[in-house]
Amino acid sequence: xxxxxxxxxxxxxxxxxxxxxxxxxxxxxxxxxxxxxxxxxxxxxxxxxxxxxxxxxxxxxxxxxxxxxxxxxxxxxxxxxxxxxxxxxxxxxxxxxxxxxxxxxxxxxxxxxxxxxxxxxxxxxxxxxxxxxxxxxxxxxxxxxxxxxxxxxxxxxxxxxxxxxxxxxxxxxxxxxxxxxxxxxxxxxxxxxxxxxxxxxxxxxxxxxxxxxxxxxxxxxxxxxx
Length: 226
Ligand code: CA
Hints:
Low-confidence stretches: none
Strand content: 15-25%
Strand order of the largest sheet: 2-1-3-4-5
Bound molecules: calcium ion
Largest sheet: 5 strands, parallel
Oligomer: single chain
């Protein structure tokens, strides 16, 4: 999953960026409202963390523009302490949740996970597909209860497929949701990651749908259909 952080406090944005990357997200950071608006407008994020007090364009205006343009990604706003009117303005502009500064990183992560799973139609942080378990809270995966050692890109790929289990995901969509903006994006590398993942989780769990993309499936359920 790919997340945009729009925050002008350099220490906070760097810290959040590092934490989110550690937890298996692809992360882009914008330090003012104009850059933040542009990124949200042009890149398909799975969620956005948006500070409201921003230089150039304020957070509420950025959010209003995105929503007016039909952007539906979940947005978590960061507000100053005791500014209840700011929260109301944020929700009116289309925010999905808020956090008041200062906050605990764990709480931000929990709220972000809640937004992401709700957007993808899940109720828990763990997704199980025929003996494969993807734990988005711990950024880990298991096959038949055994932990699988994955690189961060392999985990992102698996997590995205699991969040959208049963659906065929194109290579382009995978590229857009597992790499950050600065990564040298090449859709051929997806094939390499899929190959490595198959070797780790079992070759029959990721189906290649020719010309369309990949789909995560339960091999036992597929065999029963035959
Ligand atoms: Ca600020």
